[in-house]
Amino acid sequence: MRRIAFVNEKGGTCKTTLCVNTAAWIATQRGMRVLVADLDTQGHAGKALGVDVRGIFPTIRDVLVGESLSVRDVARPTAVPGLDLLPANKDLAGFPVEVAAFHDRADRLRRRLDDVPEGTWDAVLVDAPPSVSLVTENVLRAATEVVLPVGLTYLALDGCAEILASLEVLRRETGRAPEVTLVVPTLYRKTQLAGEILEKLRARFPDRLAAPLGFSVKIDEAQSHGRTIFEYAPRCSGALALAEIARAVWDRPAPALL
Ligand SMILES: Nc1ncnc2c1ncn2[C@@H]1O[C@H](COP(=O)(O)OP(=O)(O)OP(=O)(O)O)[C@@H](O)[C@H]1O
Ligand SMILES: [Mg+2]
């Protein structure tokens, strides 16, 4: 099972949009069984897939905090064939305190994914929260591949540098860290600043920079209707761009599972 995380400590960089739509594309266009694991108290991955996550039980919190419920017990089907969801909601907010005394508190997600029986899903795509937190640490320790969406704004490169620094610390401390397999420029508008940031990203990640994802009102609309872009407006430019990014994520050889 490939473990692909969508991470940026900065908020609003299109992590959830890319995670959910990439998962839907892999499920429908590659015929894979895919799990979206929402690790954000905002529950946006669920909402984007049309699941009302407010007040639902059990959630990812129950998988991570307790021992009795497995990932398979809590995952639920979505309207997209082949795509399941491990939902999150505000219940996850207490997680850092609830597991503070556990020696494996930063490895809870990794362990629970290790327990998933072979052949259940071909891939898990993890939607990370916009924070430096124990949850994000769990995500980075559980993933083998990281997709890094970078909003093309003035502070974009800062967020990018912080993730790379976190991965370097993790590599030093534990001897392993996921690979950043794709950097996706998002929120692209044809301005001089965006062009300059894009140039810097190209110099820094020459072999793993995706084509920029431009503004598309259809993408925003699709989320507000709880549908993927491929269900909502499959022929719009946003759908074509998201399909291209999904293809770039999936068609890259998976790094070895450590
Ligand atoms: N290409 C796009 N064009 C227009 N709107 C977009 C596009 N991509 C995402 N959005 C909208 O921007 C908002 C933020 O996107 P998204 O939720 O994917 O970001 P995020 O990084 O997951 O945010 P957070 O850090 O809060 O989790 C959403 O309302 C989404 O619908
Ligand atoms: Mg999000």
Key phrases:
258 residues; alpha/beta; 7-stranded mixed beta sheet; 7 strands; 42% helix; globular; binds adenosine-5'-triphosphate; binds magnesium ion
Describe this structure in words.
- This protein is α/β, with parallel strands linked by helices and 258 residues long.
- It has one domain (2-250): Rossmann fold.
- The protein is 42% helix and 14% strand.
- The protein has helices spanning 15-29, 44-48, 60-65, 71-74, 95-98, 108-114, 134-142, 156-174, 192-204, 217-224, 229-232, 237-250; strands at 2-6, 34-38, 76-77, 83-86, 123-127, 145-151, 179-186.
- Strands 3-4-2-5-1-6-7 form a seven-stranded mixed beta sheet, sandwiched between helices.
- β6, α8 (156-174) and β7 (179-186) form a beta-alpha-beta unit.
- α1 (15-29) crosses α12 (237-250) and α6 runs parallel beside α7.
- The chain starts with a strand and ends in an 8-residue tail after the last helix.
- The model has no long low-confidence stretch (mean pLDDT 94).
- The structure holds adenosine-5'-triphosphate and magnesium ion.
- Magnesium ion binds at residues 15-16, 40, 44, 127.
